[in-house]
Amino acid sequence: MQLLWNLYRAFFTIGALTFGGGYAMLPMLEREIVNKHKWSTNEELLNYFAIGQCTPGIIAVNTATFVGYKQKGIAGGIAATLGVISPSIVIIVLIAMLLENFMDILWVQHAFAGIRVAVCALIVSSVIKLAKSNLKKWWHIALAVCGFIVVALFGLSPVYVVVACAVLSFIFGKKVNAA
Amino acid sequence: MSELLILCLEFLKTGLFAVGGGLATLPFLTQMQEKYQWFTAMDLANMIAVSESTPGPIGVNMATYVGYTTYGVGGALTATLSLVFPSLVIIMAIAKVMDKYQKNPLIQNMFSFMRPAVTGLIAAAGFSVLKIALFKEAATFLASFNWIAIALFAVLLVCTQLKKLKKLHPIVFIAVGAVIGILLKM
User: Fold this and answer.
1) CA separation (Å) from B26 to A8, A84, A129, B169?
2) B40: region left, alpha or beta (phi > 0 left; psi from -120 to 50 alpha)
């Protein structure tokens, strides 16, 4: 029981103190998981993190589930996962409640008009970063363009794209990745 | 079907098919917006901004916010728990064979196909946010350009690519956007 509580608390701290997720959380993970609680070595942690990227879902959450499960089975996985999502739920709900009341104020609306533009720049810069690391061969580019067109222009669900990629990889994966 | 049940199903789907981290959930959220109209595209853009500038994984934050906007606190809990449920099950199911799973050529091939496609999906989601932030309703195509916003976008995008400014936290860009928005009455 003590271990479950510790798992919940450690991942609560990680969720509450990291901004943005992804690699930004690695230092926090190291501090709590490796240095403080000694639940894994640094190498194991990086490995968990890598696996978190190869499974569906949020990488931070996947890493939490994995660390928790390794420590205390299913209950541990659930405790760690609930820990990492709890701060988000509390913080976002509070902010959403506040903003509901402030959205009618004119200067708040102006601020958000500017903020939306900043968000565009951030998303495009993320796409550029992703494109640099993920689009290295001609068929990578073809897949990205198809994904974009199918969703942006034809409004199809992204689910179809992901499933189609799985199917295509079974048929052509060996051939194109060996080439 | 009640909204709460739809919310649950939609986020289970998102959790199962969003591959590659928080931003990969974005195409699913834009899809939800278009399909159900629980909130406007502009609301969604605001939610992304708040999710990027508050603590916690951005994917979880966005799910909580969308859930809250749709159905209050119950919606926030439903959306977030539904989002993490699929990966929770998957990870615990494969935890014992994790190393084999990660090195399995079939899995590696699958991800070599999914990563590029997901890049396109995120670009598509970005495109729908771009439409809201940089354009306005207008009679003609040319009149629909929001030039101030486009200029600000260009400057900020260049900044995100500059070596010195690249490492800045997203919250800095968001704060700059807010200040300029207020000063220019955007």
Assistant:
1) 27, 20, 16, 20
2) beta
Cross-chain residue pair A55–B91, CB shorter than 8 Å: yes
pLDDT tens for each residue of A50-74: 888 888 999 889 999 999 999 999 9
Which is nearest to A160 in space by CA: B118, B62, B5? B118
Q: What phi, psi does A41 have (nearest 5°)?
A: -85, 170
**Which residues of A fall within a CB distance of 8 Å from B18?**
56-58, 158
Question: What sign does the dihedral A86-A121-B28-A177 (CA atoms) show?
Answer: negative
Residue A136's φ and ψ, nearest 5 degrees, are -115, -20
Residue pLDDT, tens place only, B138-163: 888 888 899 999 999 999 999 999 98
Q: CB contact, 8 Å: B41 with chain A?
A: no
Instruction: Please say whether the dihedral angle defined by the alpha carbons of residues B2, B3, B6 and B12, taken in this order, is positive or negative.
Output: negative
Q: Do the interacting molecules here have an ipTM over 0.95?
A: no
Long-range contacts (CB closer than 8 Å, 24 or more residues apart) made by A37-42: A37/A6, A37/A10, A39/A67, A39/A70, A39/A71, A40/A67, A40/A70
User: Quick check: A45 and A30 in contact, CB under 8 A?
Assistant: yes
| Domains of chain B, residue spans | 3-134, 139-186
Q: Tell me the three state secondary structure of residue A37.
A: coil
**Strand partners for B135:** B145
| Contact A74/B at CB under 8 A | yes
A-B C-beta contacts closer than 8 Å: 366
How far is it, in rounded angstroms, from Cα A40 to Cα A30? 9
Residue A30 CA to residue A34 CA, distance in Å, equals: 5
